[in-house]
Amino acid sequence: MDTLLDLLDDAFRRYADRPALGLWHDDGTTTTWTYAELDRRSRLVAWRLREQLGLQPGDRILTWSPSEPALPAVYFGAMRAGLILVPLDLRMSADAIAGTVAAAEPRRLILGTGRDAPDPATVGLGAFPTTTVADLVADPDDTVARDWAETVASWSRPRPDDIWDLIFTSGTTGTPKGVMIAHDNILATLAAIDHVLPPIQHRVVSVLPLSHLLEQAIGLIYALSVGAHILYVRSRNPRVLFEALRSHRVTSMIVVPQVLDLFWSAVEREADRSGRRALFDRLRAIGRHLPYRLRRLLFRSVHARLGGGLSLFVSSGAFLPPALQQSWEDLGVIVVQGYGSTENGFGTCTTPQDHGLGTVGRPMPPVELRIADDGEVLFHGPTLFKGYWRDDAATARAIDPDGWYHTGDLGHLDPDGRLVLSGRTKDRIVLPNGFNVYPEDIENALRVAGVRDAIVVETSPGRIEAVVLLAGVGAPDEAAAKPVVDAAVRAANAALGPQQRVAGWRLWPEDDFPRTHTLKIRRDPVRAWAEAADRQAAS
Predict the structure, then answer these.
(1) Residue 236: inside a domain, yes or no?
(2) Shortest CA distance to 49 belongs to which of 86, 24, 15, 74?
(3) d(Cα 522, Cα 527) in Å, to the nearest integer?
(4) Are strands 84-87 and 60-64 parallel, antiparallel or unpaired?
(5) H helices of 126-172, where?
(6) pTM
(7) Which of 19, 62, 125, 132 is the most buried (most CB within 10 A)?
(8) Above 60 in pLDDT, residue 173?
């Protein structure tokens, strides 16, 4: 397979009559397209983009839509037309969108439809040339030439190194950069994934945004390449999600840790409501030592709520607390942890056969991994992006002259060659005595002790404090939270080294921490808030 179109066309032929994409509606019904229908509608999109809208190969188009079957049809149609996608996330700020538009210079906005579709006017795009995904995938009318399919088939195919995806990512820094992704980058990532995921009949429920490369590469393109049936669910309400999981008889999901946490909280709440929480926790301790099929039998009532077939989570995009992974594994659901970024795709991953806690696994061919002298994780290989859009200086800072991508993450290899992450280079706390402290180690200790959400910061030289989210404590207010957090800090400190111990804590004043559109916590605003609070208290 030279390009993603080769891969997709092969899937469209092999699985033509199978269900490919569906959308879960509020009334419990679904709209479903087969592989053949997805193929036909994506080709219609391609024709309309070039022949009706006048777009040319190399032009950029913005896509801004909730997940629905029409959106992948637009992705594949744009790919066939030789256009470059610039996906916007629904959580993007107006400033981030303005920066993306200014840098990418797109020709058209492709907008989602329906109740939860965004409004371009709210971000200054009210007058921007716009077409809806619904109009692009609509059945042919008298404005569509009779030979439209033949016209599309006559176009030149893309080349392996052609850019098809331009993802503007701010990471946790707030400075957006356009990451150029070519066909060969994703094909190399899929080759790595083939070493990880089992050859099962995947029924996938998709909850991550299609603007995220993780969902594009694994949750969409890889899933279609193996004949999966993907169901899109827009709601984050656990009741709605569980109903969709059960109806779809889901087998596997691509998630970020926050989604895993959301699901687990719902499982625990149900155990509390039933009055069987103590029994639930005892059975978890027993199940931990049993084969996975027996764990699933032990918790068959929980699995029935999840559809009866859920056996695999693939988690990536942020730090996965080992305690959260262990919780799901106790129930018999394997959690595979991947590590990578928009720039380097699939870097390392655990496998269903080797998925120990606290590690993100080994690099899979064709990916190469190296740990720099200062502990930074470096990657090399064909999964690496083609550079930052119109920013040679940023590209040179990210990829060294020998072709190694510098991730900005810190890590080391365990005795078996598996990567263990320690945090970001910029987040590393260096104490006055020169000792290095990694916030994620402390945050995980707090989680094990009962504080679900906390960010660790150095508030003054050598003083480590935790900023705690009230919702992650399970208490209604600060007064009720105090004894819970105090006890958790004491328990965490008992498990931490002398240099790592938490000296104090404070509550974050909002309902959630600030996050990127890929749900990573933005630590800089949390640090800035703590510093400002200290300055105000001292004045």
Answers:
(1) no
(2) 74
(3) 9
(4) parallel
(5) 133-137, 148-154
(6) 0.87
(7) 62
(8) no
What single-letter DSSP state applies at residue 48? I
Q: Within a domain: residue 327?
A: yes
- The 8-class DSSP code of residue 137 comes to H
**Cα–Cα distance measured from residue 266 to residue 270, given in angstroms and rounded to the nearest whole number:** 6
Residue span of the structural domain in which 138 resides: 4-231
Of 205, 231, 257, the domain-final residue? 231
CA distance linking residue 149 with residue 55, whole number of Å: 17
- Is 292 contained in some domain? yes
Residue of higher predicted confidence among 224 and 459: 224
Give every CB contact of residue 167 below 8 A, 6+ residues apart in sequence.
86, 87, 178, 179, 181, 211, 213, 342
- In whole angstroms, give the CA distance from residue 506 to residue 509: 9
Average pLDDT over residues 102-128: 94
Q: Is the pLDDT of residue 498 over 90?
A: no
Cα–Cα distance, 495 to 442 (Å, whole number)? 9
Q: Which pLDDT value is given to residue 172?
A: 41
Assess whether the previous peptide bond of 461 is cis (omega < 30° from 0). Answer: no
3-state secondary structure of 147: coil
Do 300 and 379 lie in a common domain? yes
Label residue 410 exposed, middle or buried (CB < 10 Å: 0-12, 13-18, 19+): buried
Q: Which residues pair with 61 in a beta bridge?
A: 85, 108
Whole-number Å distance between alpha carbons of 350 and 353: 8
d(CA 324, CA 308): 21
**Cα 179–chain centre separation:** 16
Query: Rounded to whole angstroms, how far apart are CA atoms 384 and 498?
Result: 40
